[in-house]
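Handout, section 4.2: multi-component inputs.
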Amino acid sequence: MVGIGVIGYGYWGPNLVRNFYDVPGVQVHWVCDLRTERLARLRLRYPAVEITDDFNQILNDPRVDAVAIATPVSTHFKLAMQALRAGKSVFVEKPITATTQQAERLIEEADRRGLVVAVDHTFIHTGAVKKLRDIIQKDLGEIYYYDSVRVNLGLFQHDVSVMWDLAVHDLSIMDYVLGARPRAVSATGMAHVAGQPENIAYLNLHFDCKLMAHVHVNWLAPVKVRRTLIGGSNKMVVYDDLEPSEKIKVYDRGITLDPMAPKASERKKQMRIGYRAGDMFAPQLDVSEALGSELSEFVACVESGTQPTADGAAGLRVVRILEAATKSMASHGAVVELPKDLVPA
Amino acid sequence: MVGIGVIGYGYWGPNLVRNFYDVPGVQVHWVCDLRTERLARLRLRYPAVEITDDFNQILNDPRVDAVAIATPVSTHFKLAMQALRAGKSVFVEKPITATTQQAERLIEEADRRGLVVAVDHTFIHTGAVKKLRDIIQKDLGEIYYYDSVRVNLGLFQHDVSVMWDLAVHDLSIMDYVLGARPRAVSATGMAHVAGQPENIAYLNLHFDCKLMAHVHVNWLAPVKVRRTLIGGSNKMVVYDDLEPSEKIKVYDRGITLDPMAPKASERKKQMRIGYRAGDMFAPQLDVSEALGSELSEFVACVESGTQPTADGAAGLRVVRILEAATKSMASHGAVVELPKDLVPA
Amino acid sequence: MVGIGVIGYGYWGPNLVRNFYDVPGVQVHWVCDLRTERLARLRLRYPAVEITDDFNQILNDPRVDAVAIATPVSTHFKLAMQALRAGKSVFVEKPITATTQQAERLIEEADRRGLVVAVDHTFIHTGAVKKLRDIIQKDLGEIYYYDSVRVNLGLFQHDVSVMWDLAVHDLSIMDYVLGARPRAVSATGMAHVAGQPENIAYLNLHFDCKLMAHVHVNWLAPVKVRRTLIGGSNKMVVYDDLEPSEKIKVYDRGITLDPMAPKASERKKQMRIGYRAGDMFAPQLDVSEALGSELSEFVACVESGTQPTADGAAGLRVVRILEAATKSMASHGAVVELPKDLVPA
Amino acid sequence: MVGIGVIGYGYWGPNLVRNFYDVPGVQVHWVCDLRTERLARLRLRYPAVEITDDFNQILNDPRVDAVAIATPVSTHFKLAMQALRAGKSVFVEKPITATTQQAERLIEEADRRGLVVAVDHTFIHTGAVKKLRDIIQKDLGEIYYYDSVRVNLGLFQHDVSVMWDLAVHDLSIMDYVLGARPRAVSATGMAHVAGQPENIAYLNLHFDCKLMAHVHVNWLAPVKVRRTLIGGSNKMVVYDDLEPSEKIKVYDRGITLDPMAPKASERKKQMRIGYRAGDMFAPQLDVSEALGSELSEFVACVESGTQPTADGAAGLRVVRILEAATKSMASHGAVVELPKDLVPA
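Output:
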């Protein structure tokens, strides 16, 4: 039996509790929140769960093996570090921390203590993204570009920009599905509401290969869009997360290069570019809830001491890019180099 | 009667001939092309039109008042300048020239001779873009962003990048619908086929106001997308050119700012951001063919000596941005300032 | 405080319990089901609710004012009648009963005892259908047709045909939004699986006016469709329940009739039919959960003794059509007259 | 060289002339129309074509081998019969004639004279419908249903109902892609404009097998829909003619039948119905213009004396159904038996 405490019962906390309830061998002992009206609501639904507004009560409970932290980003580090020091493994909402340094310290602490640090990169546990990874690795050939649009009329966050709120999803997906790691990043954005963080942003990820990645995030769009285009030398993919069932479409399309006819090549010495437009294929996807399988994996890691798919290092890689992109945005899109990744992929 | 010569009978030339035929008071006297098989095809359909592979024949014909130039971009300047010097007004395919200097010289030459220089910014003559301009000017309030995606599996051009081929449309539309002119531009792109120009590019236009504009163009996309999102302080627009009839949708959506409740404001000193989600409205659009009304306007200008909507100065403004964006792309996205526009808007 | 018992905890029962929990002034005392594994699941989530497999325990509990019945259709009548006789008001899943006679007896019994009979016509409590009713009554003019397609790869029901499972929704919506009542019905359908009820069906509703209604339901469709087209003399509507936000679109389109020019009319003596293609408008819709407001209304009716929007008479009208359509289907689409509706609308 | 005369230069005639021009070995000698302004327009574009308002001039011209008839339906028989009697093969707009008797007489006359009668069932020459036929014959298994929706805000025809105008397309496609022939038909419809033919209609085709076919046609719909759903025992198809490139989607979906577990089967003696939801596949389609390949085939048949895919018999089969459906519509949807088809399929 793995004992769990959930910290934060706002937007995401109820989903954590509900899904932990369905993982066999798990017991949710505690939920902590500072807002008593939130806890009252919880009590009605889950009377067996103890509630508190004092995080230390959870840390002091020896039945608790791990805590799940679903609080504002600025508090992730402090809470997770306290938990690790109390000997608890941690499952932290994305982004894992507000700075790379914080993420590095969490990884180090967990490593020293033999505890698990997991980051909630939910999307990589969806059937769609798992299939996307397979297709990218097997069918697409050399990857040319990865282009994501993730926009909607969204809840403004007061403490983080749209980049830390939305682009974090794209960065965690890319971290999982692309073999390559970006070398540098540049970003532009704007805050249209005085005193608020940026509500629109464009990120460019630069790689040491032919790959180019771009992300558009926007809290002020009239319509919701969740569409990623991925082009490879062999095939191309559209991943549209709003499609009810055909979220992944694989197109057998691309270009072909043929030497031009002799006469023409004498004049231009160039290749003729042809087009290949073949069939489209939409694989059936696993539709089980991502958060459920993610929490099952986390619990298994806590029991066995192994590392989850989205471990602290994955969280760190994503925060590195967000931090560099924030720096680039402040300097009008200047290219900011990323540190060579020392954590083995 | 206005006499016309058409130069270039490749992809666009036949559309010019067909549409000039339908403008009252116009006679197409000549079509010039170097490819005899093209001219043979023309002869079958329009036996009354004289054909030639010698441009000078047209320039020497006193019945010809104006020439329409639909040849590769690199030849626009030379052909248009010759025509102006022969006393003919010119209608030039987009982009008007390959450099800003060339465009400036054409404008100057036409000005001196009292001739018309028009650039074929076809989209600004569509019902959709005319309506878009109205809505932006009347309903949207302060414009926050203009975001366009124009991608497809497209014909690679050997002589120009995807930016000069596709983004030119977005730049001409913005030049027409937005009151503001960009102050600077930055762009990134990549050529995935060795020896070919860039086939994917992202442009950022920077303005002296809260407006941010972004364009994504791509010749290697698996699907065709032609979608522009425009956000304003009052309303927002989606302009999707692939929608059969509802190309323009106006959303009564946005954010509202309210002072927070006293207690909260003591703690945070901030405004509460609310959301407004109201009705959507798709105006009925004029569906007449854009090229037809564009050529009618050009012919009327030739007759009266007035300036067309897309005059040489409009063509110049677009080429300036393309030239600066090309420079930015070569320096990995560095911000390139645009010259202050001396031509009155 | 209104005390509730829920009968049946299969597909819909959990939604009833969850929504009753959110209605102020309601207490769910009991849930009854014959499947103990179902009840075990309930106990985990709602430990305060008593569970039983004996319906009589609920009927004998004086704290229970009303029961909600979410069991197979064939059991609705017996259970509802027992409940009424025990002095409990009833909220019954759609369709209200398996026969018109059963529905009539329930209405009569409830009437005699001053109890409430409500039928769960959930859709009429959605923001979309409420708006649809407004638009039909105010804007459309004379209604010409109502055409609904409701198909998907669906769960086969063993006891009822696709008509009783899916068309019941369309009939309940029509009952609510159209002023007119059908005069007769005809239907065709087919059972493709031996020993199973019909999995595809087409219904025609005949009215005493220019209105024509048609419903296509199908459990074996490759894609999910929920689209209704409604044409009126002034405007037309598309109601697409799968659209995330623009479920209702109102089109200012139609035909115009002009007397033809004298010369033509001499020859043909007819009107010229013209077309009107105007703006489209998608109203913002109330997005609160339909079942919640439906149950609130039911509880208020139980307290005050008033009738709900979907009362027993509404349930009876829908079953009458289903019964007649079943008869028509058995006779290859013969037109079956409906009884004149004696219950005032 | 095959000589052609085109009769009728209204909506479709110009398409015939343009496409005949592109068939090698064909010369369009004549175009006939009673409206001189139509012919004036033709003369401008095709000065080599002779124009006339006297059909007999064409019949008397020995250079003319075949005539294409694109006039109102009511005139098809008379014109086609005259042409056959003058020794010309005929290509007739759909529907081939206004009555089955007329179609039979044309077939008989052509047969006696060794001439070709073709009907313009354009859709069966599209890449989409050709692929649909392949898929139906190879992949779908037993066909369960064929359901087509073909609606739009359309041009009212004064002389024929929406069924003869639009459903004729569906009937010609079914005639081509389905192996089976209908046994009977029933139809309902309504004329909402006084003095005009029916503008909305629903057809049911009855077969001697598990197949059920249904067609909804409507001239008064707010949006354009061209969607056909086809379900088979192995796979299912969506054919959406408005999709720009993925017109045909094949779904590996359906039901599975498993004997129920012993205990359950004792109680219910029934099969458990399961669902199969697999991949979707959209084949690349031939995008050449259907009318071009159709006219090429017709010309080849005229030269060789062979029969086209859509011969007089195909035209007759479609008119038989239209005639029976019209009869059914007049008797409120009564089932009308079709004659056993004596022409071998």
